[in-house]
Design goal:
Blueprint (H helix, E strand, L loop, with lengths): L42 H7 L4 E6 L5 H11 L3 E6 L5 H13 L6 E5 L3 H6 L20 H6 L1 E2 L2 E2 L9 E6 H6 L8 H14 L6 E2 L4 H10 L5 E4 L2 E4 L4 H15 L3 E2 L6 H9 L4 E5 L2 H8 L7 E4 L15 E5 L6 H12 L2 H8 L7 H4 L2 H4 L11 H10 L11 H11 L10 H18 L3 E2 L1
Parallel strand pairs: 1-2, 1-3, 7-10, 9-14
Antiparallel strand pairs: 3-13, 4-5, 6-11, 6-12, 8-9
Length: 446
């Protein structure tokens, strides 16, 4: 499942009233589909539900889900899976939010990126998968992805698409100018200078403000600016790791070493194809984006570890899976579909379509990590991604209103990319806005 496009004009969930869900005990009927029930269920109950005629609805922009749905229907002929693409990213979340607020019309399952889980979970709209015994699946997944799907100790998804970060670079361009592949952030800055000096039309990367990338690089630099426990939120975008990121990134802006084109635009794809945008700092899913969006770049591109800010730790960028809505009247069958998607045959289908796996067994499989990619010149790119995922820094938390945080990022930090303010000033402004918003929604924010 490829992530939605960064990053993200979307109406924030109304959280003020939802804070009551933090301490409220959910209740509901325990009908034939166990919709609304919160009690523990057995595997026998799940299997019984799969023998009853049922239609499940899934909202997603995942290109692999229709194939997964057909495989699930073949295994369980009584179940029909209706896959609906209601939009990508912002549009998807807005429609999901509206259905949840209305109390009707929400799907059984929906794509919810890892960064958005806390916001929907806090609103009391997601089912804790512990009731299905899915906590026992922890060893199936890598620690980084398992931690990403838990909030306040509750399990809200089974991991599917991991997003370990790496440096995607145009080897043809680097070789043409005799520039070494950077392994540290200082070397990355030097490479940016050398590339632009050799050819003023060539930039190390394109960035005009991207909340997801900024959060990922802060994490890689050792920053932990957000914390959340129930209605208590901490925000410190002046911590040591965040300052390290800002100080390292600022010269790229000051020296105009970043292409100003917008990510995912026609100009962006053209820049990647021509080599005028020479690197991408991104999650593993970018491999599929390059293959499909920049076919003429086959053989030119390679993958390297994320340039280090000091240690060898990495971070994730993007990634998500499927969450179950409490509105679902078919929670037993929906749980079986979640497991099928992330643990069983569906996970293999998603992987073949370009999703980078979260399952530990796959990531330790020599055939998987040693697979050569024709697009990337025969390189074993999965090995780079697997090593990155194993090195992801622990301790990161998303805000329980991260969707809103991304929505206002360019209004605050985006100004730094035009030179009006420094990056650190923009991050401070973002912090002030996030503190103000959180308090207005009833959070205790420090």
């Amino acid at each position: 499942m490829a992530p939605r496009r960064p990053r993200r004009r979307v109406t924030a969930l109304v959280l003020g009233a939802a804070l009551t869900a933090v301490t409220a005990t959910a209740c509901g009927s325990s009908g034939s589909g166990a919709g609304g029930s919160t009690g523990k269920v057995t595997e026998e109950q799940i299997q019984e539900a799969l023998q009853k005629p049922t239609e499940l609805t899934v909202w997603t922009w995942s290109a692999s889900l229709p194939d997964i749905a057909r495989a699930f229907e073949k295994k369980y002929p009584k179940i029909k899976v209706k896959v609906e693409n209601v939009g990508t990213g912002p549009e998807h979340y807005t429609k999901l939010q509206n259905a949840l607020k209305a109390g009707k019309g929400a799907p059984d399952l929906a794509t919810v990126e890892y960064s958005a889980i806390p916001q929907f979970a806090l609103a009391g709209e997601l089912v804790d998968l512990g009731r299905f015994g899915f906590d026992d699946l922890e060893s199936t997944f890598t620690p980084a992805t398992w931690n990403a799907v838990k909030t306040d100790g509750k399990l809200y998804e089974l991991p599917l698409n991991a997003g370990p970060m790496a440096l995607f670079y145009n080897k043809k361009v680097f070789d043409a100018h005799g520039i070494a592949v950077p392994t540290t952030w200082d070397e990355y800055l030097d490479a940016a200078r050398d590339l632009h000096k050799a050819d003023p039309k060539t930039y190390i990367a394109a960035d005009n403000g991207n909340a997801g990338l900024t959060e990922s690089l802060i994490r890689a630099a050792g920053g932990t600016p957000f914390s959340a426990e129930g209605d208590k939120v901490g925000i410190d975008l002046q911590d040591a790791g965040t300052r390290k990121f800002a100080a390292s990134y600022q010269p790229l802006i000051d020296e105009k070493l970043l292409s100003p084109v917008a990510g995912w635009s026609t100009e962006w794809y053209k820049g990647l194809a021509s080599g005028n945008i020479a690197t991408l700092l991104s999650g593993a899913w970018m491999a599929g984006t390059l293959e499909s969006g920049v076919p003429d770049g086959a053989g030119d591109w390679r993958v390297a570890p994320l340039p280090a800010f000091g240690g060898k730790e990495s971070a994730t960028n993007g990634g998500g899976s499927f969450a179950m809505m409490k509105q679902s009247d078919h929670q037993l069958a929906a749980a079986a579909l979640q497991r099928f998607i992330s643990v069983e045959e569906g996970a293999d289908i998603a992987q073949r379509s370009g999703s980078f796996p979260a399952r530990a067994a796959v990531l330790s499989d020599p055939d998987f990590v040693g697979r050569k990619s024709a697009y990337f010149g025969g390189q074993e790119i999965n090995r780079v991604f697997a090593d990155s995922l194993a090195a992801v820094r622990e301790g990161w938390q998303f805000l329980p209103y991260d969707v809103y945080a991304g929505n206002i990022f360019n209004d605050q930090v985006g100004k730094a990319f035009t030179g009006g303010i420094t990056l650190q000033e923009g991050l401070r402004n973002w912090q002030d806005a996030l503190v103000k918003y959180g308090r207005s929604q009833g959070f205790t924010v420090d």
